[in-house]
Amino acid sequence: MASIAVCPGSFDPITYGHLDIITRGAKVFDELYVVVLNNSSKTPLFTIEERIHLIKEVTKDIANVKVDFYQGLLVDYAKSVNANAIIRGLRAVSDFEYEMQITSMNRILNENIETFFMMTKNQYSFLSSSIVKEVAKYGGNISELVPSVVENALKEKFTS
């Protein structure tokens, strides 16, 4: 049986921190679905289609990564693609409490899907999409935070 995992997020936009987790997760699982979820508590800068395009662009060289979108419960999506695991990235201890709550709820909803936490590389431990957007909005250098295709997309958003 193939090991299939889901790596969820809003990815608005995808950063090197996200890409670190995706790349490492793809080495552990046979298939990795990077799924864009709609976070109702956030107002996105990029449309879902734009986010999917950017993720596909930066993961195109990772053969076992598939990119998708889903509105609904993560465990329902995971079940629909026969995933047996969810990968959640952690930047710092402060992420753990929130992620533990989500994981606990997911376990209640479907106890057959395991959640794996991956710590991002130290160089990305401060990195969030929100910080990247804020720096990009004011013309700061984000070249070490996001792939060039994402940097260009951000520049386009903030100059139009």
UniProtKB/TrEMBL annotation:
<feature type="domain" description="Cytidyltransferase-like">
    <location>
        <begin position="6"/>
        <end position="134"/>
    </location>
</feature>
<keyword id="KW-0808">Transferase</keyword>
<dbReference type="GO" id="GO:0004595">
    <property type="term" value="F:pantetheine-phosphate adenylyltransferase activity"/>
</dbReference>
<feature type="binding site">
    <location>
        <begin position="89"/>
        <end position="91"/>
    </location>
    <ligand>
        <name>ATP</name>
    </ligand>
</feature>
<feature type="binding site">
    <location>
        <position position="42"/>
    </location>
    <ligand>
        <name>substrate</name>
    </ligand>
</feature>
<comment type="function">
    <text>Reversibly transfers an adenylyl group from ATP to 4'-phosphopantetheine, yielding dephospho-CoA (dPCoA) and pyrophosphate.</text>
</comment>
<dbReference type="GO" id="GO:0015937">
    <property type="term" value="P:coenzyme A biosynthetic process"/>
</dbReference>
<dbReference type="GO" id="GO:0005737">
    <property type="term" value="C:cytoplasm"/>
</dbReference>
<keyword id="KW-0547">Nucleotide-binding</keyword>
<feature type="binding site">
    <location>
        <position position="88"/>
    </location>
    <ligand>
        <name>substrate</name>
    </ligand>
</feature>
<dbReference type="GO" id="GO:0005524">
    <property type="term" value="F:ATP binding"/>
</dbReference>
<feature type="site" description="Transition state stabilizer">
    <location>
        <position position="18"/>
    </location>
</feature>
<protein>
    <recommendedName>
        <fullName>Phosphopantetheine adenylyltransferase</fullName>
        <ecNumber>2.7.7.3</ecNumber>
    </recommendedName>
</protein>
<feature type="binding site">
    <location>
        <begin position="124"/>
        <end position="130"/>
    </location>
    <ligand>
        <name>ATP</name>
    </ligand>
</feature>
<feature type="binding site">
    <location>
        <position position="18"/>
    </location>
    <ligand>
        <name>ATP</name>
    </ligand>
</feature>
<feature type="binding site">
    <location>
        <begin position="10"/>
        <end position="11"/>
    </location>
    <ligand>
        <name>ATP</name>
    </ligand>
</feature>
<keyword id="KW-0548">Nucleotidyltransferase</keyword>
<keyword id="KW-0963">Cytoplasm</keyword>
<comment type="similarity">
    <text>Belongs to the bacterial CoaD family.</text>
</comment>
<dbReference type="InterPro" id="IPR004821">
    <property type="entry name" value="Cyt_trans-like"/>
</dbReference>
<feature type="binding site">
    <location>
        <position position="99"/>
    </location>
    <ligand>
        <name>ATP</name>
    </ligand>
</feature>
<keyword id="KW-0067">ATP-binding</keyword>
<comment type="pathway">
    <text>Cofactor biosynthesis; coenzyme A biosynthesis; CoA from (R)-pantothenate: step 4/5.</text>
</comment>
<keyword id="KW-0173">Coenzyme A biosynthesis</keyword>
<dbReference type="InterPro" id="IPR014729">
    <property type="entry name" value="Rossmann-like_a/b/a_fold"/>
</dbReference>
<keyword id="KW-0460">Magnesium</keyword>
<dbReference type="InterPro" id="IPR001980">
    <property type="entry name" value="PPAT"/>
</dbReference>
<dbReference type="Pfam" id="PF01467">
    <property type="entry name" value="CTP_transf_like"/>
</dbReference>
<feature type="binding site">
    <location>
        <position position="74"/>
    </location>
    <ligand>
        <name>substrate</name>
    </ligand>
</feature>
<feature type="binding site">
    <location>
        <position position="10"/>
    </location>
    <ligand>
        <name>substrate</name>
    </ligand>
</feature>
<comment type="subunit">
    <text>Homohexamer.</text>
</comment>
